[in-house]
């Protein structure tokens, strides 16, 4: 596994370090797409071992630690804390005690493999996106496994553009212990291998799989293990966004602002700023109670999409917009000195100063598929103190200023 890490170590470690942690009783307790942003180990619920396991996995990913060293370092800690061998544990979902397998050399190997392999895949995907302008295709290669799966051998030789939907579900690893790999190639090589614009699409047959833990039936592509029909790198941006937004929305108003400030100050925003990822968005500002009332809306929060951010960065390029500038502007959004509803009540402006700089930020309403109104940031601009005061006086004259 250490050889794999040499490909894209920074991208690999970034994927793993950004994960949250959640102890579970069964791997099926977490939805497949949530594994892209959640570190979990089955049967750790009720045991104080998840942080220990995570620390060792993090070291393995960061320092290219081979499995034997990982096992020798972690085993004594798990044994000391009682998370080893077979034991009776109560399933928190059913309340029924059962004999379960806790730590073992085989389980540690599975934990090591699953986390290092998916971190590697996510890092490779990030590099693939960065290089797709001159290497726009992906080739599914034959596995090096001694006992390959017939279904996976059926994928060998498939050549498709980097952003083809096929790679959303079939980007390896495609199951427990899967050793399949892909290679990014040029258009010339793709054509030489038989790709053409009018070629037939690969046939993907979906089969029903019932998650006995949740009772839900999911569609899984034939040949892909349940829980593995996802691209860790591609899904991560979308899933992190949804995950954070859902968590922020569930918080009471007094805690929501603090949570948003944590997100704005986190490495996640820095990552989105440096390399905007398609489909990603973050909660970046609360919608004030008085403003929400004036707009006839719920006091939720404002989202910033990677597409809008990329546009803003280009718009401010000549003025040299920095990450600190952006955080300064979002600090104003978190605690504005004034808010102004737009004439149509379909948007609003925040005004204020932070870190010695003045800003005007604008957000507009978008009706989501659920029918709910979402607020999305569309622009932010530097303003002098004089300009801010002038805008405030005009809004106050029109009876729209909310201080």
Largest sheet: 6 strands, mixed
Which strand-content bin applies to the residues?
15-25%
| Overall 3D form | globular
In order across it, which strands form the biggest sheet?
Answer: 10-11-15-14-13-12
CA-atom Rg in angstroms: 24 Å
Q: Give average pLDDT, whole number.
A: 78
Please give the alpha-carbon distance between the first and last residues: 58 Å
Q: Count the helices. How many?
A: 15
Structural class of the secondary structure composition?
A: alpha+beta
Structural domains: how many: 3
Helix content range: 40-55%
Unreliable parts:
1-9, 15-39
Essential attributes:
3-stranded antiparallel sheet; single chain; 6-stranded mixed sheet; 403 residues; disordered N terminus; Phage_head_morphogenesis_dom; alpha+beta
Explain what the structure shows:
- Strand 13 and strand 14 form a beta hairpin.
- The N and C termini lie far apart (58 Å).
- The protein contains 15 helices and 15 strands.
- The chain is globular.
- The protein has helices at 2-5, 9-17, 50-63, 67-80, 105-131, 150-153, 166-170, 187-192, 232-250, 253-264, 267-274, 289-295, 306-315, 323-334, 385-397; strands at residues 20-21, 38-39, 86-90, 97-101, 137-141, 159-161, 181-185, 206-210, 217-221, 281-286, 301-305, 338-341, 347-354, 357-367, 373-383.
- The model is unreliable at 1-9 and 15-39 (pLDDT under 50).
- Helix 3 (50-63) packs antiparallel against helix 4, helix 4 packs across helix 5 and helix 10 runs antiparallel to helix 14 (323-334).
- The strands form five sheets. Strands 10-11-15-14-13-12 form a six-stranded mixed beta sheet, sandwiched between helices. The chain has a three-stranded antiparallel beta sheet with strand order 6-5-7.
- With 403 residues, it is an alpha+beta fold.
- It has three domains: 1-131, no CATH class; 132-230, no CATH class; 236-398, no CATH class.
């Amino acid at each position: 596994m250490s050889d794999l890490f040499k490909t894209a170590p920074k991208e690999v470690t970034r994927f793993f370090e950004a994960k949250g942690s959640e102890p579970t009783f069964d791997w099926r307790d977490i939805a497949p797409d949530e594994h892209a942003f959640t570190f979990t180990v089955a049967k750790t619920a009720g045991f104080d071992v998840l942080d220990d396991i995570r620390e060792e996995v993090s070291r393995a990913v960061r320092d290219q630690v081979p499995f034997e060293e990982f096992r020798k370092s972690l085993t004594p800690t798990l044994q000391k804390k009682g998370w080893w061998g077979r034991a009776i544990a109560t399933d928190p979902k059913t309340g029924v005690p059962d004999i379960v397998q806790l730590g073992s050399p085989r389980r540690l190997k599975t934990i090591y493999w699953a986390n290092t392999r998916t971190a590697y895949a996510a890092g490779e995907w990030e590099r693939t996106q960065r290089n797709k302008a001159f290497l726009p295709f992906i080739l599914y290669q034959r596995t090096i496994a001694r006992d390959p799966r017939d279904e996976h051998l059926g994928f060998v030789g498939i050549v498709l553009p980097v952003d083809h939907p096929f790679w959303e579900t079939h980007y390896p690893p495609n199951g427990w212990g899967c050793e399949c790999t892909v290679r990014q190639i040029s258009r010339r090589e793709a054509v030489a291998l038989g790709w053409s614009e009018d070629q037939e699409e690969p046939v993907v047959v979906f089969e029903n799989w019932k998650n006995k833990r949740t009772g839900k039936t999911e569609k899984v592509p034939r040949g892909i293990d349940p829980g593995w029909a996802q691209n860790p790198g591609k899904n991560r941006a979308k899933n992190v966004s949804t995950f954070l937004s859902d968590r922020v929305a569930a918080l009471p108003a007094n805690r929501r602002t603090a949570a948003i400030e944590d997100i704005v100050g986190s490495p996640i925003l820095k990552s989105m700023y440096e390399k905007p990822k398609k489909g990603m968005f973050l909660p970046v500002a609360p919608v004030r109670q008085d403003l929400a009332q004036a707009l006839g809306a719920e006091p939720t929060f404002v989202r910033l999409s990677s597409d809008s951010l990329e546009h803003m960065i280009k718009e401010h390029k000549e003025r040299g917009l920095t990450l600190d500038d952006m955080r300064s502007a979002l600090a104003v959004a978190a605690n504005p000195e004034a808010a102004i509803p737009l004439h149509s009540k379909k948007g609003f402006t925040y005004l204020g100063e932070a870190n010695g700089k003045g800003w005007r930020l604008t957000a507009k309403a978008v009706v989501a598929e659920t029918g709910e109104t979402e607020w999305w940031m569309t622009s932010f601009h530097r303003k002098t103190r004089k300009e801010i005061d002038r805008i405030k006086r005009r809004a106050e004259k029109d009876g729209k200023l909310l201080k």
